[in-house]
User: What shape does this take?
Amino acid sequence: MAEADAATITRTLPEWSLTFIEPTSDRVTLLPAHWQPIALAGRAEVRYQVARSLWNQEFLAFIPGFATAMDSHCIDVRACITDGCAALVYVMADQDGGLVSWVGYDSRTFGPEPMFWPCFPEPLRAFLREVHAGFVSGSDGTSFGLARPIHMTTLAEFAEFPEGIPGWAEDEISSTRLLRVTSDGGNLHYCLSPELPPGEIGLVYEGEVDSRVCGAELDELMLSRFAQSPRMPGADGQERER
Assistant: This one.
């Protein structure tokens, strides 16, 4: 398994502030005990194997395409501090040699249960509570995975109209009843709601809500990240056209 140095990984997340935890650093103690072997391991394949073993099988089955891609394309997992808390950075390679990364937050930062928590499918609840309290990529820190629970807000609050988005169509689910849990990094928002059938997620674009199967849509969204960046650095630090 190829490795990427800290500078190369940082270039995959240009909007993020990452402080990597090296094996000799006293910051290793800031990590959860079950993460510390990841920071201490000297080989990338060992770091990935340990990190992968911590994921709940129900969530992996929920997103089978991304689970397969992660197994075949993850070249390293590095422990770091970002946003003032511990996190793991999963570095993935694509078939063109480019790199893209996800950040998985320490489950101890879960905080209070998000609104509409009973609407979350159980594999998501277990993942957020026990594995990563947020697993995201992109520049806004809430996209291409599951946002941190502390960042999950109603779509109305996200739009800065907490009482409801003006002009919202009456035949759609209210913007105050849609909890934004992730996005495509643009104008497509993925929302859970008690108004949706169990196991479904609302894809919201320009005020229109399309109810879809949650696992399939989350899986497709996460896989789509591989195609989002027009230029990504490879493991050798060289940028490649996509």
Remarks:
- The longest helix spans residues 214-224.
- Confidence is low (pLDDT under 50) at residues 230-242.
